[in-house]
Amino acid sequence: MLTIGNKTFKSRLLLGTGKYPSFDIQKEAVRVSESEILTFAVRRMNIFEPSQPNFLEQLDLSKYTLLPNTAGAKTAEEAVRIAKLAKVSGLCDMVKVEIIGCDRSLLPDPVETLRATEMLLNEGFIVLPYTSDDVVLARKLCEMGAHAIMPGASPIGSGRGILNPLNLSFIIEQSTVPVIIDAGIGSPKDAAYAMELGADAVLLNTAVSEAYDPVKMAKAMRLSIDAGRLGFEAGRMPKRDYAVASSPMVGLVPN
């Protein structure tokens, strides 16, 4: 089970809800993914305008936990305001802190992320900060009391997969809260690798929504995350420099 704050989940796949070709494809992709946590950018939704189309209306919300994110914020104050807006709207008291510090790389601002995390924790939120793969920053967020750490595998939407597995393994090793690999996942191979490193979960969006068949890709991601987690729990065989026969050399039939 995946536990974040006071919430517990069976699925280790968190799914984003943007950029799907249609509501119907989005709804089916969500269903086959078996994800229990759906994330979305509060600033990109007309949550107070009933005449505007809203993907939330397409889903049975009793089956999901909504994870609003603060995408679009450039400062801690903006992120806190967006989080409070989502909470007042009755969406969730769990929030993904996303504060972009570079418009070209879309990498998060470490200083503002730390500030926003502390401010939201003081407000009683369940806080999941999105960070780079900075080992020290992840430790500081964990020590501050964040309920999960969300380091990126590579830049948002790049599909480049895991660029720095060593740093991610350090973050996972030192963390006392769930580590959710977020951003840059491009294929089921990437998702399985993240789980084999020991991550607790994976959050992805573009890898599914921009796939030729988003529904099939959503299922593939679910299966790869399950397989990667099982592989991590099983413990892989050691890597060796030389071959080792898979059959015993004793008791052979004489020539």
TrEMBL record:
GO terms for biological process: thiamine diphosphate biosynthetic process. It is found in: Cytoplasm. Gene3D superfamilies: Aldolase class I. Pathway: Cofactor biosynthesis; thiamine diphosphate biosynthesis. Its EC number is 2.8.1.10. Catalyzes the rearrangement of 1-deoxy-D-xylulose 5-phosphate (DXP) to produce the thiazole phosphate moiety of thiamine. Sulfur is provided by the thiocarboxylate moiety of the carrier protein ThiS. In vitro, sulfur can be provided by H(2)S. This is Thiazole synthase. It comes from Sporosarcina limicola. The gene is thiG.
